[in-house]
Design a protein that fits this description.
The complex is a heterodimer.
Chain A lengths: L1 H19 L1 H21 L8 E7 L4 H11 L4 E5 L4 H9 L5 E5 L3 H7 L3 E8 L3 H29 L4 H8 L2 E9 L5 H31 L3 H7 L4 H30 L8 H26 L2 H17 L12 H10 L1 H15 L7 H15 L2 H9 L8
Parallel strand pairs in A: 1-2, 1-3
Antiparallel strand pairs in A: 3-4
Chain B lengths: L2 H18 L1 H21 L8 E7 L4 H12 L3 E7 L2 H9 L5 E5 L3 H6 L4 E8 L3 H29 L4 H8 L2 E8 L6 H31 L15 H31 L7 H23 L7 H6 L3 H7 L11 H7 L3 H14 L8 H42 L1 H14 L7 H11 L6 H12 L6 H12 L7 H14 L1
Parallel strand pairs in B: 1-2, 1-3
Antiparallel strand pairs in B: 3-4
The chains are: A alpha/beta, B alpha/beta.
Chain lengths: ~400, ~500
């Protein structure tokens, strides 16, 4: 009963305060929603198309023009310029107008007719990894197809049927099974990471701000006593509205991913709902831990912001763990709840792995919550000790 | 005080406030070093080599083994498991032991030697893009190599000479060269962009904190005295000078020294880089000052700006190119100094372009600098206007009825008497909660004077001293007299 009253008091107090701090209210409500919508809009197209490419056509024959047409028709490339020389093309690349140059050599057609092998240099701007690898894949596939086409024609002139020539030109071929993320959509791969990052980012900042402000303004004791001198009740009463709100937003996130963006959902939806909740709770409790450890609002905010931003790099999503130094990889798994959340997300949403497979990660997320809870007695001391108040 | 002295007074005030504030220093100076070190640590190996994959060899012949050897020799993947059972490969895949599976069909050798066609199956996982790319490029290049080899062997068997056989098997040889980032390093790719962005974000937040603190502690009134009038333009120039000066030092330390120690590419001409950064720093500083006029507290900048770092980075088109995003979003992103600065900086220093090559971005940054300059002047102007109203109302209230003001104070105190601790702090809370009320300023002033000794930490007191340091030049006395008068009213 006492706990219930304390809980109710804290909840009312928190919601009352929330309304009065305009910036904070915007930060908790409008910003997270805005950032989710922003990401949905940004990745709307899934993969970048029409990456600008130039062809330096030193041959200017029907054959070379055919090659240029094929390049333009490629999946990602778009032919935007035909500079006269490689130097000119280089200048265009430095000005940011093109990302790749294909140089069709002089006498290409004649050499091909004579049965000589021609070499086609392709220069790709590698300063952007995504653009570079998409163009590399696209241009090599196109030119390979172009080359095979020539071979088939030649074999036909030697008396083979079209079908026989096709088989002879490609003794080994492949079929591609992309098990997860079958559309190889960049958006499907990166969006869940960014979106859930926004959620926990605002979750941890709101927690740290809300608790830190009590300390800064010296209202911590009032908060604690209102909750019947139970630090746990005080914390839960304070954080629960945010937990539920961000959890609600996680449904918005899933709406955007699965309904708006048509992302496939291969595993257990319930598991994801639980994982979303735990992600938010874990970061909130890590926020409690950070406030308790730093004892000051500003430093706690700086640290939790850094902790959140770094989570993305340490998660192994964009740059995988196997490419990292072992110490760094271990840190990534030990320090950041986000790493484990992403594991669950990839396993369930993309891979459709069995549910039991994700239980380990769920347990780790719970451990983060418990680690945060361990700071309760220390925070209690802080709340009672008025010398700690007003720290900046 | 003439104009130049006032300008110097503002600049000095600002500079001292910045340097003496540990929180601001941590963000404006420390953060960029901390982040760049940590990121470098994560991405240090640059590339992912030897992605483990499994090969299911249903053929088990010399030809299939040769294929596997060739695949394994590729630097991008390593054949970690060989099996004849697809189900087993699937298990390895789910347990994250391998990141892809390649299946060589039964009768592989028979098909390729009899003029048939063998179909190799690639099972790849696109949920981790970098690894998907490595497997895919290794598999396709192995297949391409095998094709040329098998075909030319056939043509040679039919009586062709070696050269023509290869020319027939692969008439057009494609030679791909990746420029500017030959090894396709991840750090080389993201770090230049991240560092430029961090510079913007830390400046914006730092400036926001300095000005938010000024508002929170009511320090703006020192620029609003009858005896010494500061125009908005003058205050802006003074503040901007301090920030730009400081940011230039940070830039030198980061780009001139630390960046090189970490080993990131600096191909551009140094003069070009300095010229390019000038409008960038100016536009960020003016934007920061303008926006910070909205911040009422010290922390507002952190909670409102930090979370946008990732969206801001994305808007520059580095992680996801502009060709992929909706054009309206890209255009909106151009309002941020970081967007043009990142693309321009990468071209200058990663690709080795000249300032002339990035003139579009360069000119646009100047447009932004000028626009945000005007924005900042206007924001300071409005800030001062509001402050004037408040000061006037405060004086009116004090003149009209000292008792009434005293009454408000008592009221607050009784309302919060439950806490039993430090009533002055609680009063501050109530004051901030409705901080638009006219007597908010006077109340906080009283806090600084009366409550300071007990509640505020030593740090704040030292900060207060810093602020008063600039005012020694003379006419602070009237303020003191005024404040003393207020103390009489309140206490």
């Amino acid at each position: 009963m006492r706990i219930c009253r304390g809980f109710g008091f804290t909840l009312r107090r928190e919601l009352g305060k929330f309304g009065k701090l305009a910036t904070f209210a915007v930060m908790v409500t409008v910003f997270p929603l805005m950032s989710l919508l922003f990401l949905a809009a940004l990745f709307e197209n899934g993969v970048p198309r029409d990456l600008p490419v130039a062809v330096v056509d030193n041959d200017a024959t029907p054959l070379s023009r055919q090659a240029a047409r094929m390049i333009d028709a490629g999946q990602f490339a778009k032919l935007v310029a035909s500079p006269a020389s490689v130097d000119e093309a280089r200048g265009m690349m430095l000005e940011g107008r093109i990302d790749a140059v294909v140089v069709l050599p002089r006498d290409m057609e004649r050499s091909v007719m004579r049965g000589e092998r021609v070499s086609v240099p392709v220069f790709i701007n590698g300063s952007n990894l995504l653009v570079g690898s998409l163009l590399e894949k696209d241009l090599s596939t196109t030119l390979q197809t172009f080359s095979t086409g020539i071979e088939i024609q030649k074999l036909q002139t030697k008396g083979m049927t079209a079908e026989a020539a096709y088989v002879a030109a490609m003794p080994v071929t492949f079929d591609k099974h992309i098990l997860f993320n079958p559309y190889t959509s960049y958006a499907y791969y990166i969006m869940p990471g960014f979106m859930s990052m926004m959620l926990f980012f605002f979750a941890i900042l709101s927690t740290v701000f809300s608790i830190g402000l009590e300390l800064k303004r010296g209202t911590a004791f009032k908060w604690l006593s209102g909750a019947g001198h139970s630090m746990g009740t005080a914390l839960v009463g304070k954080m629960l509205p945010y937990t539920l709100w961000f959890w609600l937003l996680s449904f918005v996130m899933m709406y955007l991913l699965y309904v708006r963006m048509d992302m496939p959902m291969n595993g257990s939806f319930a598991m994801l709902v639980i994982a979303n909740f735990l992600l938010i709770a874990a970061y909130q409790w890590m926020g409690v831990l950070i406030v308790t450890a730093t004892r000051g609002l500003r430093l706690a905010l700086s640290i939790s912001a850094g902790y959140s931003v770094l989570a993305f790099s340490f998660s192994g999503l964009t740059y995988p763990f196997i490419g990292m130094n072992e110490v760094v990889a271990t840190l990534g798994k030990v320090l950041f709840p986000f790493t484990h959340y992403l594991d669950i997300f990839v396993d369930q949403s993309m891979r459709g792995a069995p549910v039991w497979y994700s239980l380990g990660d769920v347990a780790v997320l719970c451990l983060f919550v418990l680690a945060g809870m361990a700071s309760i007695p220390f925070l209690r001391v802080l709340c009672k000790d008025q010398r700690q108040w007003g720290r900046l | 005080m003439n104009g130049i002295n006032r300008y110097l007074y503002v600049a000095r005030n600002e500079f001292v406030a910045m340097l003496r504030d540990g929180g601001v220093m941590l963000i404006m100076l420390g953060a960029i070093f901390i982040y760049s070190t940590l990121y470098t640590f994560v991405y240090r190996n640059e590339v992912v080599r030897n992605v483990p994959i499994a090969v299911v060899d249903l053929d088990g012949t010399e030809s299939s083994r040769e294929f596997i050897r060739r695949l394994d020799a590729s630097p991008n993947v390593t054949v970690a498991y060989q099996t004849t059972d697809l189900e087993q490969a699937r298990q390895l895949f789910y347990s994250h032991s391998v990141y892809g599976v390649l299946l060589l069909p039964g009768e592989y050798e028979k098909k390729i030697s009899s003029g048939g066609q063998a179909v190799v199956s690639i099972y790849a996982d696109a949920s981790y893009f970098l690894m998907y790319k490595q497997l895919f490029s290794a598999a396709t290049s192995t297949i391409g190599y095998q094709n040329i080899k098998i075909e030319s062997a056939r043509f040679m068997a039919a009586g062709m000479d070696g050269r023509s056989a290869v020319a027939l098997a692969d008439p057009v040889e494609v030679k791909v060269t990746k420029l500017y980032n030959r090894v396709e390093g991840y750090a080389t790719f993201v770090m230049p962009a991240i560092m430029v962005l961090i510079l913007q974000q830390t400046l914006l937040i730092g400036i926001g904190m300095v000005n938010g603190t000024m508002t929170e502690r009511n320090l703006w009134r020192r620029y609003r005295k009858k005896s010494r009038h500061f125009s908005s333009l003058l205050v802006l120039l003074g503040k901007a000078t301090a920030y730009v000066f400081f940011a230039s030092i940070v830039c030198f330390l980061v780009y001139g020294v630390y960046y090189k120690i970490l080993g990131y590419p600096v191909l551009g001409n140094e003069l070009d880089s300095i010229l390019f950064f000038a409008p960038y720093l100016l536009s960020v500083v003016f934007l920061g000052i303008g926006v910070s006029m909205l911040f009422r507290y010290r922390e507002t900048a952190i909670i409102t700006l930090v979370a946008w770092s990732v969206p801001f980075l994305l808007l520059s088109g580095v992680s996801f190119p502009m060709e992929g995003m909706p054009s309206w979003l890209y255009s909106m992103g151009q309002m941020l100094p970081s967007s043009s600065a990142i693309t321009g900086y990468i071209r200058l220093n990663v690709m080795g372009a000249t300032l002339d090559d990035v003139r579009e971005e360069y000119l646009w940054l100047w447009v932004l600098a000028i626009s945000y300059f005007i924005f900042a002047v206007l924001m300071i102007h409005f800030k001062f206007k509001m402050l004037n109203h408040r000061l006037q109302a405060e004086l009116d209230a004090a003149a009209a009825s000292p008792a009434a003001v005293g009454h408000i104070g008592t009221d607050d105190r009784s309302a919060f008497s439950g806490s039993g601790h430090s009533d002055t702090r609680v009063v501050e809370l109530s004051g901030e909660a409705k901080s638009d009320s006219d007597d908010d300023d006077s109340r906080s002033v009283r806090e600084e004077r009366s409550g300071g000794k007990r509640v505020f930490s030593d740090k704040l007191r030292s900060d207060t001293r810093v602020v008063e340091l600039g005012g020694k030049s003379g006419d602070d006395d009237d303020v003191k007299a005024k404040d003393a008068g207020k103390d009489e009213i309140f206490v």
